[in-house]
Amino acid sequence: MAFIVPGGILFVARDADSEQPRPQYSKFASGTFTYGVGTHWGVQHFGVDIEGEIGTPILAVADGTVLEAGPAAGFGMWVRLLHDDGTVTIYGHIDTATVSAEQRVLAGEQIATLGKRGFTTTPHCHFEVWLDGEHKVDPLPWLATRGISLVP
User: What is the pTM of this model?
Assistant: First the structure.
């Protein structure tokens, strides 16, 4: 809403509800939850997988800084983010990275596109959580405590 006052001064009243607060956490990809932590094909699987179409946007789950974005053994391509609390998240089997090392990203910002690179049979995003950058934890409860559910 704008008001014009005689003398040429313009006042613009801003609606306090017009700006939405930025999310603190975001689901990392849309698609179908297919695998969780466990043994798959005789190999320990430390993350969760979201299957989807190649090119589907992959989003930063929380604010952080890009540690790596590019080739990774097994994953083909990945993005690794260091979050403000010291947690590291990994997004594997990506098609393309849309960020680069040392770049600052916000929760919900696109960091990559879903792919089928590395050791995989279907297009998906493999997501891992490492507390303090080294202790792998099950991403499902970690995400749930942040209001994110992958399973219907």
Answer: 0.83
